[in-house]
Amino acid sequence: MNQMLILDDDIEACETIESLITRQSHSCDMAHSLKVGLNLLKTKSYDVVFLDVHLPDGNGLDILPEIMALPNPPEVIILTGKGDPDGAELAIKGGVWDYILKPSSVREITLTLNRALKYRQEKNARSEQQQLDLSLVVGVSPGIKTCVQLTSKAARSDSNVLITGETGTGKELFARTIHQNSRRSNQNFVVIDCASLTESLVESTLFGHRKGAFTGAQSDQPGLVKLADGGTLFLDEVGEMPLSLQKVFLRVLQERHFRPVGAPQEDTSNFRLIAATNRDLDMMVEQGKFRSDLLFRINTMHIRLPPLRKRTEDIKPLILSRMNTLEKEYGLTPKRLGDDFLNTLLNYNWPGNVRELFNILERAMVNADEENTLYGVHLSRELRIQVAKAQIKQMTGSEVTSDEAYSANDGVRKIGQEIFKDIFDRPLPPLKEFKGMTEKIYLSEMIRQCNGEITPILKKSELSRSHFYSLLKKYGLSL
Q: Which structural domain, as residue segments, surrounds residue 71?
């Protein structure tokens, strides 16, 4: 007997689907809000979820990452009374089984349900046969768990895979994880950095050459494509591949044949392709910078790695894992994490993602030397200032977004420097206390610049008269 959940605020629709499910001898629960539905999903195991898009307390599509991050996520069937092409796209990208509109016939719903159950049965059988080695992947966020599930599917197949994500998100790590869990794991994992391929040596690098093919070719040399024979060929930064090479490589992908430089006949290579890029290949196709036929070839499976700023719950596990590695590699003193250290990193924007996190952590551990605890003071002053500026912007609603904008008002910049000067050589105070410090300094400087005149003060600060006087009283200031 399979367990179903209907998450829909339409009582009549719920009863219709419930009747359909129970007639097939399956068990069924109902929920009419996202909150109740999520509680059920976290406490019980379901095989299929019928999920409405428009619910009283939110959009059903918004909880797809949480559903997909469950240990054994159910198959999700989106059922809604409002046609929404964008919603359908989001749902399919989010990993749902199907997307159908109300009202739908009982026959249509039954067919979709039975297909989903058959697929789930086969999927669970495959999962029991193969346990992945995910030792390289660290993370607990819904986004990273979705990527792990796709990685598992990719490892069991031999299809081409495209991995996209910002610089430093771990594209090569996921590519290696796919290779290590595939049937090709005993063969080579060959990396080609497309950004470093030079026009003059590209064919020799990829396809190899024969002795005497050109000046300096003193012996036969296999290319990277041949080295990947039987294994995996990883095209890193495939978006940087020159157009002239894309056409050549497309033929290699289609036929697995290539000709080494200076060779009289073609050679073959049975490789599995995984490509990665931080660029938008669809946009590059529109701009004529990337071949659409090559994109179709490499994009059989697509894994989108989320940036670190969108999965901050993974920061602590990543830090702990990396700390353990660094302590073993460099013989560093084992260390604990201070609250201010972790809070600072949680509030940073991470433009360099996981790679930047690891570099910052390593510098902090070296800076801490023999100390047992990592504190915020062990982080670079530049990083702490960036975090503090971002917090001030969030508290005050300031539109300042760059150092250039700060330099446009030297007075404000000097005030900021005074605020930062003393606090960054000690642990940061609580946020409420820090906010009070900045407000008091701001008001004091505003009063000084306006010579205590209330009209210009209110105009420049955009405070109401009553609010301004309440702040004066709060901080013991006077005009």
A: 3-128
Q: How far apart are CA 323 and CA 169, in angstroms?
A: 18
- Give 254-260's long-range contacts (Cβ < 8 A, gap of 24+): 254/297, 258/206, 258/207, 258/223, 258/225, 259/207, 260/207, 260/208, 260/209, 260/210, 260/213, 260/222, 260/223, 260/226
302 shares its domain with 322: no
Q: If you count them, how many residues does the chain have?
A: 479
Domain limit, last residue, from 282, 306, 330: 306
Q: Could you tell me if residue 137 is inside a domain? A: no
3-state secondary structure of 268: strand
> Cα angle vertex 11, ends 10, 14, to 5°?
90
- The 10s digit of each residue's pLDDT in 268-307 is 999 999 999 999 999 999 999 999 999 999 999 999 999 9
Question: Letter for the amino acid at 384?
Answer: R
Which residues, in sequence order, are CB contacts of 287 under 8 Å at separation 6+? none
Residue written as tokens 């030792």? 135
Same domain for 280 and 261, yes or no, is: yes
Do residue 56 and residue 160 come from a single domain? no
For residue 200 the two structure tokens come to: 């003059």
Structure tokens at 333: 């003193």
In a domain, 105, yes or no: yes
- Distance between CA 444 and CA 96 in Å, rounded? 56
**Which among 239, 273, 306 is the end of a domain?**
306
pLDDT digits (tens, 9 = 90+) for 111-127: 888 988 988 888 776 66
Phi, psi values for residue 211, rounded to 5°: -55, 130
Domain membership flag for residue 133: no
Residue type, 126: R
Q: Cα–Cα distance between 36 and 54 in angstroms, integer? A: 15
Residues of the chain with pLDDT under 70: 81-94, 125-131, 200, 394-428
What distances in angstroms separate CA 346 from CA 324, 359, 426, one per listed residue?
20, 16, 18
Selection from 42, 52, 121 nearest residue 80 by Cα: 52
Do 281 and 295 fall into the same domain? yes
> Per-residue pLDDT tens for 426-471?
566 777 777 777 888 888 878 878 888 888 888 888 888 888 888 8
The answer to whether 274 and 232 are in contact (CB under 8 A) is yes
Angle at 158 between CA 157 and CA 160, to 5 degrees: 110
Decide: pTM greater than 0.70: no
Task: Give the number of domains in the chain.
Answer: 3
411 Cβ partners below 8 Å, 6+ apart? 445, 449
- Give CA–CA dist 150/152, Å, rounded: 5
Return the CATH number at 116: 3.40.50.2300
In a domain, 134, yes or no: no
Same domain? For 185 and 290 the reply is: yes
